[in-house]
Amino acid sequence: MPQADELSRTFAALADSTRRALLARLAEGSASVGELAAPFDMTFAAVSKHLRVLEGAGLVSRGRDAQYRPASLDARPLRAAAAWIGDYQRFWAESFDALDAHLTTLTTKEQP
Amino acid sequence: MTGTTSGGIEITRDFTAPPAAVFAAWTTPRHFARWFGGKDVQVPLDSLDFVAEPGRTWTAQMILQDGTTIDWAGDFVEVVPDRHLVFTMTDRPAEPVRAKIVVELTAIGGGTRMRFTQETPGFSPEQQEGVLAGWQSFIDELERIATA
Description:
The complex is a heterodimer of chains A (112) and B (148). Chain A is mainly α and 112 residues long. Chain A has one domain (4-110): Winged helix-like DNA-binding domain superfamily/Winged helix DNA-binding domain (Arc Repressor Mutant, subunit A, Orthogonal Bundle). Chain A has helices spanning 4-14, 17-26, 33-37, 44-56, 76-110, and strands at 60-62, 71-73. Chain A has a two-stranded antiparallel sheet with strand order 1-2. The longest helix of chain A has 35 residues, at 76-110. The N and C termini of chain A lie far apart (44 Å). With 148 residues, chain B is of the alpha+beta class. Chain B is 24% helix and 38% strand. Chain B has helices spanning 19-27, 29-35, 125-130, 135-147; strands at 2-5, 8-15, 57-63, 69-80, 84-89, 99-108, 111-119. In chain B, a hairpin with a 2-residue loop joins strand 1 (2-5) and strand 2. In chain B, helix 1 packs across helix 2. The longest helix of chain B has 13 residues, at 135-147. Chain B is globular. Chains A and B meet through helix 1, helix 2 and helix 5 of A and strand 2, helix 1, helix 2, strand 7 and helix 4 of B.
């Protein structure tokens, strides 16, 4: 399973609904801070702050153009996050199948 | 029933065994070793350090079919017999991050309804509570984006 510290950063970044909305917007294509701020009724400063968190989690990269610096989605950490959830869902589903079987065995043994 | 909650994974299962038996299966090493990880893995009983008391650390080793081993570790947080179990776990004991697990048992008929949740790592308690109901659709969206 993926590195826990990277996952922590990814999930912490995803824990905020505004940042999830920003990512959903970026999934449609790169955007400048101004373009991102417009539909959210947010200041540029607030959007920039969220973008820095997303950048820190590796979910967003910024262009080099000093004036414009469009933000782009990087889906790789999302794959790791989705994989974490999928891996554990399978792990527990298989565990609980075995738990069910084990409980059934115990119950059967206890019958006279 | 399996789903993704505000902060992670949620699974609800019904068992025909009573809550006391399900609780014992979670908290007794010789039972836990039999089912943890599923039927295709081995958890040697002598690898388990597993005393279900609040504040106690637990460790377990899991041997996969291909022979690789996984070391698990965590701490017991809350232990309420036959009803409620909270503990943490990780498959990377050297790292500080632990995922919190909550198991709630309710008697239904002669059996048990088990509600299981595992928090994703990285959430503060405030974030856990604050995450909005849109999480499931976002995760679906994530998977769509991630696999595009």
